[in-house]
Amino acid sequence: MCNSLRELCYNVPDQSIYGELTDGSIAKLVSYVKQFSSVTILDIGSGSGATLCAFAKHMPKTSCDLVGVEISQIRATISRQIIPHYLPPNAKKWLIIEDNVLTWSALPPCNISFSFDTTFTKALMTHIVTLQLNCPELQFVISSKGSRYYDTSLWSIITTVPCKLKGSGQTISFHVRIKKKTLKH
Ligand SMILES: C[S@@+](CC[C@H](N)C(=O)[O-])C[C@H]1O[C@@H](n2cnc3c(N)ncnc32)[C@H](O)[C@@H]1O
If DSSP codes are grouped into helix, strand and coil, which group holds residue 30? Predict the structure, then answer.
């Protein structure tokens, strides 16, 4: 039931290409993030919500709060049905916000920000990076877009991981970055 519901996320008529990383790729990405006793993970463009759950699953000793923001009403609705089926025991709270992150003036407090941002526009990326820099709790950013957006004086790259996509088997590189300092206006 969940898989077919989840497959609907691939068929939403919008401009973007939908994709999800394999569980193994998410496990690799998580292994580069320092483990704390509790974290809030934000997925910008959270799709079916399954990726957020997979992040928490691979940090079993960490209490995880999960927050997703999703512009597509259909995907946000589906994700609210999907998440309870995939939620691991260490994921304490979850919230899916149906919204366009481009309209946000601040991120919710979070320690790890993930985005599958290969199709995000320059304007959207520039806005997201400013929000990430201004989020005091945020330490780690996992995303595919590179140093064109993430200034090396503000971010250190920890690693670059070739990640596989579900279905197509295509490989896309994701970078794990750590913030050096918060942007001050
Ligand atoms: C490639 S999918 C990734 C889904 C999920 N993060 C994952 O990795 O499984 C990217 C998602 O970003 C969403 N998105 C695109 N622009 C957005 C925006 N401005 N605000 C919020 N979500 C957005 C799309 O609707 C799509 O569901």
Answer: helix
